[in-house]
Design goal:
single chain; 168 residues; alpha+beta; seven-stranded antiparallel sheet; three-stranded antiparallel sheet; 3 helices; globular
């Protein structure tokens, strides 16, 4: 009976480890409900990786698909996480709810993180965690997002993902 319990526990707590080679880091999805969508190659030094999580139903019975976007730049020159965050903010402005630079959710001491909100083209308010960090000549913007009214349901899962980041 104890062996069966151990097998069931191992099956139900499966984590998916994801490695991003050009950025020299890895992270874990807390379950196998996250799916790889695609990799977009913007240019020789910039890639975007997209993942989606388990759909969530809002108060209005809308189906929301939480997602993760990794924006990875490998030719960074002398840019740091703050420079990169400011550059990206100018391209995609949002309302800053919280800013943090010391947190277990950040992979390095020179990382920067935000909780933010923006309204999409359909008028939906979306809320997200966005962190910026450098590692071995690469800069990464990692964004975990869902609708504003489903964010609290996803917060613990998002924070687990962020805390799992390990630099190679």
């Amino acid at each position: 009976m104890a062996l069966l319990t151990l097998i069931v526990a191992a099956i139900t707590s499966v984590q998916a480890q994801i490695v991003i080679p050009k950025a020299n880091f890895q992270f874990d999805f807390p379950d196998n409900h996250w799916k790889y969508l695609e990799k977009l190659e913007i240019d020789n030094t910039t890639n975007i990786y997209l993942y989606s999580g388990t759909p969530t139903i809002t108060k209005n019975n809308d189906t929301i698909l939480p997602f993760m976007r990794l924006y990875v730049k490998t030719d960074i020159g002398k840019k740091n996480a703050l420079d990169f965050a400011m550059e990206r903010f100018m391209q995609q402005p949002f309302i800053i709810v919280d800013e943090f630079n010391e947190s277990p959710m950040l992979p390095t001491k020179n990382s920067l993180g935000y909780t933010g909100i923006y309204r999409d083209k359909d008028g939906q308010r979306n809320k997200f965690y966005m962190i910026y960090f450098t590692n071995k000549g690469s800069l990464t913007e990692l964004r975990l997002e869902t609708s504003e009214d489903t964010f609290e349901n996803k917060r613990a899962e998002f924070e687990t993902i962020l805390k799992s980041i390990k630099l190679n």
